[in-house]
Amino acid sequence: MENKLILEIFEYVKREYGTIPDNPWKNSPGNYVLRHKDTNKWYGLIMSVERKKLGLSGTGIVDVINLKCEPLLADILRQQSGILPAYHMNHVKWISVLLDGSVSMDTILGQIDMSYSLTDSNKK
Predict the structure, then answer these.
(1) 118 falls within a domain
(2) What is the pLDDT of residue 119?
(3) How much is the CA Rg of the chain, to the nearest whole Å?
(4) d(Cα 85, Cα 74) in Å, to the nearest integer?
(5) How many Cβ atoms sit within 10 Å of the Cβ of residue 32?
(6) Which terminal Cβ of the chain has fewer Cβ within 10 Å, N or C?
(7) Cβ atoms 114, 86 nearer than 8 A
(8) How many domains does the chain contain in total?
(9) Quick one: pLDDT band at residue 22, thresholds 50, 70, 90?
(10) Residue 96: inside a domain, yes or no?
(11) Is residue 123 part of a domain?
């Protein structure tokens, strides 16, 4: 794995939530799921996706993280560079964040925290 942002995310989710990313797809070694330890519910998905599938110009692959988001905030965030409608997930409640340096790590980690909270079935 060569994307330093992904490694930083892995370190963060392990430290904050005890999450060990897993890869349930043998034919997609660069894709990882972030799950709640107690329920196995997803709060994040890291994928390598073709740029054209995300509506981006150019060729090649880009790393993204899909995160759950409050719908109104998602609308606002998607107006920023590097934040897109979620690839392969609900476009209203999920966003895809490019892991290419176009979005600050502080923003990414804040969105991870929100996604973790929104998907926590124990929050009451």
Answers:
(1) no
(2) 94
(3) 14
(4) 8
(5) 24
(6) C
(7) no
(8) 1
(9) very high
(10) yes
(11) no
* Contacts by residues 25-34 (CB-CB < 8 Å, ≥ 24 positions apart): 30/1, 30/63, 32/6, 34/112
Residue pLDDT, tens place only, 23-37 = 988 888 789 999 999
**Domain boundaries, position 99:** 4-106
Residue 47's CB is within 10 A of a number of other CB atoms, namely 20
Q: Are 82 and 98 in contact (CB under 8 A)?
A: yes
Name the nearest CA neighbour of 28 among 52, 53, 10, 45.
Answer: 45
d(CA 88, CA 70): 18
For the segment 73-111, what is each residue's pLDDT rounded down to a tens digit? 888 888 888 999 888 777 789 999 999 999 999 999 999
Question: For the domain that residue 87 is a member of, what is the CATH number?
Answer: 3.90.1150.30
Comparing C-alpha atoms, which of 68, 66, 67, 63 is closest to residue 28? 63
In a domain, 43, yes or no: yes
